Amino acid sequence: MAFNLTWQAPKPTFPSLPPNITRTFIPTASGPLELLSATTSTLTRKTPLFFIHGGFGSAAVWLEYMTYFSQNGIPCYALSLRGHGNSWYPSFLRMLYWTTKRTLASDLVAGIEHVQELESGKRGEPVEVILVGHSSGGGLSQLILSEGSVKVKALVLMGAIPCFRSLDPWFSIRMLWHAWHPKSPLSSTKLVKNVFFGKSMPIEKVQAFEKLLSPYESLLWPIGMFRPFVNVHNILQGIVDWGTSDRVMVLGGENDKLVTMSIMRRVAGTYRSAFGDLVESKKIEAESKGLRTQGEDNFGKGVTHATIPSAGHHTQNDEPWVVGAKKILSFYEQL
Question: What is the pTM of this model?
């Protein structure tokens, strides 16, 4: 078996993008961060979607979603955190041992503030994003809202690290099988498919997806989420304009091996309980409705909970990715 492991920072490649998407860079004190944008003069909706990837990901894992939503009139942005995509790369040791979840959260805050300022300037009024966080990026999304770093219009948690703790306390040991390299569990195409995708994903598409993965990852990012790391009540108070709509979406793949359906149900229940507390105490102005059902999805009490049949952990890249995109669009339209 061949292992795709390296200890060197990659050279920038700047691969070509679909014609509807552009690449720019956000300057920060540490280094430039890659920002992909899907915005045109034909976009008809005000609230932008802001996508953030998980471990080993990049802005490019959202290309299909960005194309889909921009074709539905929604401006879209996706950020690559440091050490991912075409953003600046710390050295292997610096990334592995000195890049914490809060370090990466500072990149996410910089990206959201940049986009919200950009969109507000275009429209001449304040604009908040809908934050879509996948996996460990979903953990970061909850962290910055819990700590009051930003305000957003709504929050979508896709296969996200749960608000109560990370998934597996042995993860840091299992991912160091090959000379203490964090990419050990993803060191072959077969492993990538097994960890990230459902059975129907063609191996050729998995091989293409592998090219989007960063060569190494922060060890302190997942370790920082082993224990409960956020306050759900604070997260909900970081979301604006509640009214009568759901403002949190919990979305998972039916065959996700990392964030299982039972975990997603527990996450949705945790958020619904906190939402009820905040409405009752009048800390947010919203209407706490009983649960209501619309097709397969479960709406109500501020939270939409939905599952993507046959999808694995990387729901936005798996074969049924468009099913998840349509569910998010439905969530967007009820805001």
Answer: 0.92
